Amino acid sequence: MVGEFADRFSQQLSTRPVLVKSILTFVLLSLVSFLGSKIRLHYRLRHLPLINGKGLFRSAQKAKQIFRVNARDLLKDGFTKPHKSATAFRVETDDLQVVILSPESVNEIRNDSRFSFTDLIAEVGQLSGGPDIHPNFNPHEGLNDMAKDVLQKRLTPSLGLVTEDISEEATLAFKDHWTDNTEWHALDAKATLVEIIARLSSRVFLGHELCRNSAWLRITIDYTMTVFRGIMALKRWPSFLRSVVWRFVPEVRNVNEQIDEAVRLITPIIKKKGAKGNSSSPETTKPARLDVIQWASEVANGRRYDPTLLQLGFSMASMHNTTDLATQVLYDLCAHPEYIEPLRKEVKTVLEQEGMTKAGLARLKLMDSFMKESQRIKPSELLGMRRVLLEDVTLSNGVFLPRGVQIGIPTTMTTSPDADDSTSDPAAFDGYRFLKMVGNPQKEKTRHFVSTSPDHLGFGHGKHACPGRFFAAHEVKTILCHVLMKYDFKLVKPDSRPTVLDMGWALIAEPGIQLMVKRREGVDEGLLHN
Length: 530
Ligand code: HEM
Hints:
Elements lengths: L1 H13 L2 H28 L15 H21 L7 E5 L4 E5 L4 H4 L5 E2 H8 L20 H11 L3 H19 L7 E4 H17 L2 H4 L2 H22 L6 H4 L4 H24 L18 H8 L7 H29 L4 H15 L3 H5 L2 H13 L5 E7 L3 E2 L5 E2 L4 E5 L58 H18 E5 L8 E4 L2 E4 L4 E6 L11
Parallel strand pairs: 2-8
Antiparallel strand pairs: 1-2, 3-5, 4-12, 5-8, 6-7, 9-12, 10-11
This protein binds protoporphyrin IX containing FE.
């Protein structure tokens, strides 16, 4: 890759001496400024212990390798080893050092705007290294204020209006991917769930037209990985060179090709619906159409945005996370089949009374508790509340954090919500754990799947807590209603439990696990529709 790049680059340079001079000056200045800021930051962090630094018997590469496969133990060691700090320490990650704060800091930082989420996303997504990497490219288009407004002001309040659409799409998608076959047959749990979730989400994000379009479904499923590969390829270059080399990196070109293809697919739909990217229409309280294209144009209120990039941003923010959660819940059901009948009974009783409605899904309390327990034991990341410091801060416990440093708080150490309850072992899976809190005034507010609290950081906490979690909960509950009512299921290999893949901070439900599935007979499917 580097050879190919060098050839093309040198051909261009040999014909343009002024360009050569400008580029060399730019590279030199960037290098000086890059090294300067890196050294300054390291120096200002030296008061905090480094848990996996290079040493006499450990190379820098080895330190990074330890992070990649065993970040979980690093977090544990940092707070528990007697010679280490109990309040904060540093971890050497793939490309920079991150300061880990203790869970006691959650409330102090959750609404503090000096701890920036936006700048963190910009740093993690180094793909934005070039000013015009794509005519409109912005890797965080799905994570900005526009996206939050669409979710908070339109999608979440409209969940009751899209429940039937989601359930109708679930019926069609399960028919295609899990089939109506009443004999046991094997299928790949995660691979089929991602296809089903792509359909359900696209039905709400884009409407009927594209939610069954195979070209769009491939993009919405693959886009996160394409961007991730682009970022990884770019990160092989020193950061001061990234804004020059990105044009020649094939993985980054793939990102641009996918964006172009998405524009080609989505633009005609936007034109047909009459929604404009730069709408200045005033906000209305009642949405005219029920999809993100329409809602975005309603809440834009004069703000500039690109409707295609917004959709791709939603794909990035939602597809992997929601699929991983649904997969983990399914694995947990296979591991604890004693929950299947009580859950079926709950779904049947509630849907008979409420129908497949928002109110009905909200009354599925055992399901809600089971999902929260799944996320408690395996959140999608080991590190939550990740932020970048916009200025120097000294925390109330005396820890000094310099401007520019990345911080985070472990998610798996904050989750012992009922440690005071001697009947429940915090380390064990207990699907009833949060159901048992119903009626407990101290726990009532935090027991719901969508509640965030310092004890449960799966969706973050504070002003950046995930605004898509209400939709994710709605979608996964709908999926579980369909799975429980319509299918019998079990692991192909019941004795080998799926594992969790630790990849740096990410905790991933194992892909490629085969389930045995068969359609149940004599089920009243009418319960799943109104
Ligand atoms: C199970 C599924 C999901 C999980 C586990 C999840 C998790 C998270 C987490 C941990 C954060 C960062 C919170 C923080 O640092 O305080 C976040 C932010 C965000 N999520 Fe989600 N998410 C999920 C689904 C979704 C969906 C379906 C959408 C959109 C439809 C979405 C949109 C967003 C947005 C826009 C933000 C940025 C919020 C901000 O800038 O303040 N998420 N999510």
